[in-house]
Amino acid sequence: MSRKLLLVGDVFVDYTLGNESTASKLRFGGIVHAARGAWAIGADYSVAAALPSYLEKDARRFLQAHGCSNFSVIGETVGSPNLMVIKDQLELGDQGYEDILRDTRETVRTGRVTDVQHCTDILIVPGSVPLSKLVDLLPTSASIHIDIAYDIEDIDALEPLSGRLETLIISTSSTLFGKIGSAGLDELVAAVRAKFSCTIILKENRGGLRVVPVGQTKAINIPAILSNTRNSVGVGDAFDAAFVHFLDEGVETAAWKAGRVASSYAQTTYPDTFKEYVDQALSLTVQQMRDLGGVQVPWEKRPLFEIYLAAPDFSYIETRQIESTVANLSYHNFKVRRPVKENGELVRDSSMGELHRVFIKDVQLLKQCALVFAMPLGRDPGTLVEMGMAMECGIPVVTFDPEKLNSNTMVMVGSETYSDQFDECLSSIYTIISGLIR
To answer: CA triplet 398, 324, 431: central angle to 5 degrees?
Structure first.
């Protein structure tokens, strides 16, 4: 039986801020990300959306040009343009989403979905229409799958889906995950299964994903493919649509294939190029996908592999770049050890005894850590010495050199990764820890 999808959510305009290396980007977002995923795999899909009236004509035209068989407006949004400003499209840390005028948003009218009674599966990405009201507008015979991102903060809010919920999809960046799953997958499964009998999918950013099929407790591990990331916005939504579409082939196969679709979505923001990547990715068999491997770093295991920060982390210099880097690593649930903060900052003209005491403590801390993340800002000599010590001890070193001042043979060759791009260094951390876990 071929699945017939109904994608339900809000239509946004995503505006990604540019920087010195990338231009600003304006495109349809919200449920349209899932629609692009459905289109790229040739799924039979319809869309039921809430959106401001000024977007309806263009959204309808775009979706129809990308395979949408029926477009229903289930809510008119007023008080907000549904404009999402995005600071970080790569999810190096908190992406800095800014939903313009979100506090004044209202849905002033709702209408029942039309001409989609034939749909077999409903994928909901919650938005401005409350679930209690939304369920009454949807076909009653279809199974429901939901992706909980930022608009559901309490698991009790899912109660209207009781008896119909087939799949609950959540990511480590979700507010709800922070409340019921921050200790890891087991805590999440226990909280969900106390109320719902459904398949649970935890998406773990660059660390892959885990799937716990309904009626089971053991997770299926699907590794991430850390290719050259161009975009992380909407990647999870593209995964969702593909997963539901491929469910007739079994939960595990659907997850493997959807993972490849998500990886393809991360490599481009151009639909036609995305579809080409998807065609290439899905030409592989699932066994070939398994054989190629990938990166798997479970959320709850990340703090166990402590990261030593080698950097001039001193109070008397500008450390905003260091603080930003630490915040980004913490966002990914890595535990960063900061020797200057932990062992003390020496004052000028400290005694040799005091210098020796701090030296020993710093070296001991370095040797306790799984890897060294180095930021040799200004060619800081202490940082370079710490890097050399780690290399000699066989501790992997990832060197982030945003100022491009340390492109020395010993630094570049001795580091597992040397780059002036934090994105590349972050992926390297995931890859190294994935190898340590194995």
So the answer is: 30
Find the length of the chain.
438
DSSP code for 103: G
Spatial separation of the C-alpha atoms in residues 126 and 6, rounded to whole Å: 13
Question: What are the boundaries of each domain within the chain?
Answer: 4-296, 300-437
- pLDDT-derived band at 91 (thresholds 50, 70, 90) equals low
Q: Which fold has domain 4-296?
A: UDP-N-acetylmuramoyl-L-alanine:D-glutamate ligase (3.40.1190)
Backbone angles phi, psi at 402, to 5 degrees: -60, -25
Amino acid 90: pLDDT = 66
What's the chain's average pLDDT?
Answer: 92
pTM of the model: 0.93
- The pLDDT of residue 116 is above 80: no
pLDDT at position 233 is: 86
Classify domain 300-437 at the CATH class level: alpha beta
Residues with Cβ within 8 Å of residue 2, at least 6 apart in sequence: 44, 248
Chain segment 278-333, per-residue pLDDT in tens: 999 999 999 999 999 999 999 999 999 999 999 999 988 889 999 999 999 999 99
Pairwise CA distance, residues 207 & 228, whole Å: 15
Q: Count other Cβ atoms within 10 Å, centred on residue 292.
A: 11
Q: How far apart are CA 388 and CA 369, in angstroms?
A: 15
Q: Which residue has the tokens 């972050």?
A: 426
Give the closest residue to 97 by CA, choosing from 81, 86, 110, 112: 86
